[in-house]
Amino acid sequence: MATTKQHSDSAAATIVISGRFDAHQVPQVQQEIDNLQASGARFIILDLKDVNFVDSSALAVMVRGMKRCRERNGELLLCGLRQPVRIIFELTRMDKAFRIFDSEESAQSAVIAGL
Amino acid sequence: MHVAIVTTYPPGKGSLNEYAYHFVRALRQKSEVGQVTLLVDELPDGVPYPSASSELEEAPLHIVPCWRFDDVRNAWRIGQVVRQYQPDVVLFNLQFATFGAGKVPASLGLLAPKLVNLAGFPTMVLLHNIMETVDLRKAGFASQPIMEKVIRIAGNLVTRAILSVDKVAVTIPKYVEILTAKYHTDKVLLAPHGTFEEHFPEPTFELPPGPRQIMAFGKFGTYKKVEILLDALRILEQGGRSDLEVVIAGTDSPNAPGYLQSVQAQYADLPNVRFTGYVAEEEVPRIFGEAAVAVFPYTSTTGSSGVLHQAGSYARAAVLPRIGDFAEVITEEGYDGEFFTPDDAPSLAQAIANILDNDDRRRELGMRNYMAACGLPISDVVDWYVLHFDSIIAAHRRRSAPDDQAGTAGSQPRAARV
Questions:
Q1: Backbone torsion region of residue B92, taken as left when φ is above 0, otherwise alpha when ψ lies between -120 and 50, otherwise beta
Q2: A73 has pLDDT over 80
Q3: Residue B101 sits in which domain range?
């Protein structure tokens, strides 16, 4: 499941994802990201603290989202990675490609501080 | 960025040519990529490669034939051409027999990535198979134990050379674990194989009129052997199934010239066998779409199966060998099939019958493979590669100019071409 929280700064928002982030959930998350980018959000935080599994299609959504955020001089940030999810990122070396934070608060602070 | 790729490529018939075609097609669409140069194998009789067309939003493609199968000079020749074209990054699309059937040219060719990297070029390798999981004897690369040992030692040395470059991608999670543990490296990463179709046609399970086609696809003669499939056909027919046809779709492996011709002669008494020869890209949908079942008559596995990805994209049920970790690997990817014991024709016949005699099972397996194949288009996989290219280009710049501002990495958006 994915729910969106808009920040007071409309250029930033958080999408909270829970459960298995896999091919079945990808369309909803992709739609949330598309909606936010269409409404002007340049910084998107994906809160993964309640995610227990990601597959390659979920990683692809995150890569696409990051690419589009950067094209708009923004960024897609990740936070709250649990160990099973972190292993996938390390296996693909995507842990070096993304900005990853322990919590949504620290990710938000980074956005406010201009990364 | 200017990306150079060392690979086989159509109309060349070397292994991985089709993968390269789809990878390059996707790569040229990326805004970060300004130019793609392919360093490809020379075609027989000096036939030139066709000029590559460029759509408005595609990076131009330049094809440079500069190496030859079984030539001991390949690594040197490739290095020369890389120096000439000065790409920002070089990707090698390889499997262990890419550069030759002979062990010496094959091994020497695999030193090319290291030589290019030592010359100062950011270098990445996509390695489709690893020595550690290949049964060399069954795959046709070693007939004696002593030869197998020699090949394994050489393989270890070559693997170490490959692992010395900036990054090495493999397509199976277990390969990352094996290489990382054995060679104590942090350069290996997982990149999914990806599927070739961007927009998958709606799956269809209707079969054409006529005999039900049992199809095997690929390059045959090393670890893909079809005798067992033809023996299985005899068993199925003895069981009362008279409406079957085996379709062998593909050609000899470059490492086994003349193989299919010898099989044709050996099984000349079987009337309902069709050898298609080389299958052009535009014929692939028909070949898969008409098949009642796709069979994988492998005696060994050397990596994730691109043919299985294709079969899945056409919603075909699959019959698969139970070899080593192959079943585990493809299940991890979401595929499924009926499994048979390698080298066991009755087992293969039973696996095929389980699908042919139960249409619900055929459709169920076909749909499952379709869902797995839809998982990740190769265009998404290429996005990952572009990220990796960026990072290794940036790392090279930092190393070569540590006191200067490294700036951003090599990916500059491509200006629109008019």
A1: beta
A2: yes
A3: 2-194+377-400
